[in-house]
Amino acid sequence: MLYTYTRLTTKGADGMNNVNNYGPSHQHKFAGVTSVNLNHSHRYSGFTDPAPSGVPHSHRYYTVTTYDDGHTHIVSGITGTSIELPEGGHYHNFGGESSISGSTPHSHSYKGTTGIS
């Protein structure tokens, strides 16, 4: 698990930026294999963007797949909200459709769970 410090900037009613310090934040590892389309699939892995610890939250994620069948795809999105575990820690579900790429344009579906934090 990676720990960082999260700062969130928001616009106040007066139009000025307000910076809120949420204290410790964290990231999750994610990895998987896409669906098989046009007789091939792609692997992907990465780390989510940081999010505040200790409160319900989601993470943004972005990575590029492995180079297979002459091309790559982008896998990106926002995880589901945190799912707490009885023994402590939490994880997130994620999934979606990759970017369109390839000599025959296509995408791949993907889904999974992040590592536990």
Automatic annotation (TrEMBL):
Residues 87-117 are annotated as: Disordered. Residues 98-107 have a biased composition (Low complexity). It comes from Thermincola potens (strain JR). InterPro entries: YmaF. This is YmaF family protein.
